[in-house]
C-alpha cells in the first residue's frame, strides 16, 4: 500500500488493485513505476489476461513505453514513453468490457501527440465497468468541464453483451495543451432525466418494458423524462443476448448523476429497470456535483489543471478515490484539501475537495 | 447526547485530509470512520498473536469474491428496497426543480 521514492525515481506500488490509475499516473508524469506483489498469494498468481491486454493497448498508444513483466507475472516495471495517439485498433478479451480499457485511455488521450482515434472491440456493457452508454453520455461531458469538448466522440458501432461480446466502438479525442481549472461547487436542482434502454438478440419489446418500469418510479419527481430505446439489429447486435438500462439525471448546473443495470440470467426487464431507477435515486441522494464513478477522473484533471486552485463538490469519497489521492501525492506531490461542504448542515455528507493545479503542459503535442 | 454526536461527526469530517495523507489506514478503514487510535490497537492485537498467523488475503473480500479494479460499484440489491418506502421517496424531492416551487425547503 505505502510507496516510497527510491534514488532513481522509480515509484513503487504494491498489489493488483488500482493498476490502471497507477499506470496512467506514470505515463502522465513520465516517472517509471514498479508494481509488485500482484496476486502473489493467489492460487493463480500474476497478471490477468485483461490486465496484460490493457498494457498492450497502452503500448500501442504510447511510443517508447517499456513494460517488463517478471517471470511469474507478479511484478511489473513500467518505463513510460511519450503518449503518441493516432489511429489504433484493439481487441479486448471478453473477461472485461471495453469500459475497463477506455477509462484509462480517456485520462491519457487529451495529452497525446496526435489526436487519438481508437477502435476497440469486445463486450460493450457488463455489470463491472462503465458501459459504453455511460461513457458516452456521462463521462465525456465530464471532460468538457476541463475544456476538452470539440471532437470528443464515442461511436457505438456494434453492441456486444457478455459472455461473447462482439461489439465495436470508436473513440476519438482531440488534444489539448493545458486544462481549464474548475470551480464546481453548486450541485443545483435536477431538471431532467435521460436514459438509454437497449436490448440485443432478444425481443425489442423488452426495452419498452424497461422504459415503462423506470418511468413508474421516476415520474413522480419530474415530468421531463426521456428514455431512448436503442435498437441494434443483425450483425450489429453482437454475439450474445442481453439488455440493459442506463439512466442519468442532469441538474440546473449540469451536474450529472447516473446509474445503470444490466440483465442477469432469468431477470425480467422490470427487475432491471427497477434496480437502475432506484440506484439513480441513491446516486441523487448521495449528492455532490460529481458522483463516485467519476471522482478519480475529475481529481486527475484537477491536478493537471493550470496553476490555480480548483474546487469541486463531491459526495462521499470512494475507497478508490482515497487510494488515488495517495497515489497522486506519491507521483505528482500534490495533495488535496478535503473539507465538508456545509459545516452547518450536519446531515450533509458532501465534501469540497480542492487542490492547486500542477500546470501540466502537454509537451507531447506536436507544434503545428 | 445530540451535542456529543454533533461534535463527533464534525471532528471526523474535519480530519479527513489528515486521515488520508497522515495515516496508514486503508481506504476502507477511513470510510468506516475509524481513527488512528483504533487501528493502532488492532494492529497490536494482531502482532501479539501466536507463532502462526492466518494470512489475510488482499485478493479476496470477506465473502470470497475477488477484489477487482472497477469504477462501477457493485449494486447492493438489498439496499435498494428502501426505495419502496413512500417517506424515503419523498425525502429527496427537494433535490429536484419540482421541489423548489413550494419554497418550503429545510
From TrEMBL, chain A:
Family: Belongs to the RNA 3'-terminal cyclase family. Type 2 subfamily.
Native species: Tulasnella calospora MUT 4182
MF terms in GO: RNA endonuclease activity
Domain RNA 3'-terminal phosphate cyclase insert span(s) in chain numbering: 185-285
NCBIfam families attached to this UniProt entry: 18S_RNA_Rcl1p
UniProt entry keywords in alphabetical sequence: Nucleus, Ribosome biogenesis
Subcellular location: Nucleus, Nucleolus
RNA 3'-terminal phosphate cyclase domain sequence ranges: 12-338
A GO cellular component annotation in the UniProt record: nucleolus
Biological processes, Gene Ontology terms: endonucleolytic cleavage of tricistronic rRNA transcript (SSU-rRNA, 5.8S rRNA, LSU-rRNA)
Broad class of the protein's primary localization: nucleus
InterPro entries the UniProt entry points to: RNA3'-term_phos_cycl_insert (IPR013791), RNA3'_phos_cyclase_dom (IPR023797), RNA3'_phos_cyclase_dom_sf (IPR037136), RNA3'_term_phos_cyc (IPR000228), RNA3'_term_phos_cyc_type_2 (IPR016443), RNA3'_term_phos_cycl-like_CS (IPR020719), RNA3'P_cycl/enolpyr_Trfase_a/b (IPR013792), RPTC_insert (IPR036553)
Pfam families on file: RTC, RTC_insert
Alphabetized PANTHER family for the sequence: RNA 3' TERMINAL PHOSPHATE CYCLASE, RNA 3'-TERMINAL PHOSPHATE CYCLASE-LIKE PROTEIN
Designated name of the protein: RNA 3'-terminal phosphate cyclase domain-containing protein
Amino acid at each position: 500500500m505505502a510507496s516510497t521514492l527510491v534514488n532513481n525515481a522509480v515509484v513503487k506500488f504494491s498489489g493488483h488493485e488500482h493498476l490502471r490509475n497507477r499506470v496512467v499516473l506514470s505515463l502522465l508524469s513520465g516517472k517509471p513505476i514498479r508494481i509488485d506483489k500482484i496476486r502473489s498469494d493467489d492460487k493463480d498468481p500474476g497478471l490477468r489476461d485483461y490486465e496484460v491486454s490493457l498494457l498492450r493497448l497502452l503500448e500501442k498508444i504510447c511510443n517508447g513505453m517499456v513494460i517488463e513483466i517478471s517471470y511469474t507475472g507478479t511484478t511489473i516495471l513500467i518505463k513510460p514513453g511519450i503518449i503518441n495517439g493516432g489511429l489504433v485498433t484493439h481487441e479486448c478479451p471478453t473477461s472485461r468490457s471495453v469500459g475497463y480499457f477506455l477509462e484509462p485511455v480517456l485520462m491519457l488521450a487529451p495529452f497525446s501527440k496526435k489526436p487519438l482515434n481508437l477502435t476497440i472491440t469486445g463486450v460493450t456493457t457488463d455489470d463491472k465497468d462503465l458501459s459504453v452508454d455511460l461513457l458516452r453520455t456521462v463521462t465525456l461531458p465530464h471532460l468538457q468541464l476541463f475544456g476538452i469538448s470539440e471532437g470528443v466522440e464515442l461511436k457505438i458501432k456494434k453492441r456486444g453483451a457478455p459472455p461473447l461480446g462482439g461489439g465495436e466502438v470508436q473513440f476519438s479525442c482531440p488534444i489539448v495543451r493545458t486544462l481549464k481549472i474548475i470551480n464546481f461547487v453548486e450541485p443545483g436542482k435536477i431538471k431532467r432525466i435521460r436514459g438509454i434502454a437497449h436490448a440485443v438478440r432478444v425481443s425489442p419489446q423488452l426495452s419498452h418494458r424497461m422504459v415503462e418500469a423506470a418511468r413508474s418510479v421516476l415520474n413522480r419527481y419530474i415530468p421531463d423524462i426521456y428514455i431512448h430505446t436503442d435498437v441494434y439489429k443483425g450483425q450489429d447486435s453482437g454475439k450474445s443476448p442481453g439488455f440493459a438500462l442506463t439512466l442519468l439525471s442532469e441538474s440546473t448546473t449540469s451536474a450529472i448523476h447516473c446509474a445503470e443495470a444490466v440483465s442477469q440470467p432469468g431477470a425480467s426487464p422490470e427487475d432491471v429497470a427497477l434496480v437502475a431507477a432506484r440506484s439513480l435515486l441513491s446516486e441523487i441522494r448521495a449528492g455532490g456535483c460529481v458522483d463516485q464513478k467519476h471522482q478519480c477522473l475529475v481529481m486527475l484533471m484537477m491536478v493537471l489543471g493550470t496553476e490555480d486552485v480548483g474546487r469541486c463538490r463531491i459526495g462521499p469519497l470512494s475507497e478508490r478515490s482515497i487510494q488515488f489521492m495517495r497515489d497522486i501525492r506519491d507521483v505528482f506531490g500534490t495533495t488535496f484539501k478535503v473539507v465538508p461542504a456545509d459545516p452547518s448542515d450536519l446531515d450533509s455528507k458532501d465534501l469540497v475537495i480542492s487542490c492547486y493545479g500542477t500546470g501540466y503542459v502537454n509537451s507531447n503535442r506536436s507544434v503545428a | 447526547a445530540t451535542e456529543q454526536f454533533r461534535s463527533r461527526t464534525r471532528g471526523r469530517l474535519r480530519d479527513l485530509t489528515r486521515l488520508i495523507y497522515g495515516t496508514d489506514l486503508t481506504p476502507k478503514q477511513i470510510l468506516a470512520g475509524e481513527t488512528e487510535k483504533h487501528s493502532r490497537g488492532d494492529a497490536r492485537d494482531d502482532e501479539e498473536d501466536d507463532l502462526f498467523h492466518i494470512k489475510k488475503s488482499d485478493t479476496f473480500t470477506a465473502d470470497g469474491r475477488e477484489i477487482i479494479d472497477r469504477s462501477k460499484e457493485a449494486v447492493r440489491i438489498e439496499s435498494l428496497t428502501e426505495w419502496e418506502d413512500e417517506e424515503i421517496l419523498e425525502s429527496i424531492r427537494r433535490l429536484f426543480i419540482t421541489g423548489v416551487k413550494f419554497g418550503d425547503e429545510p
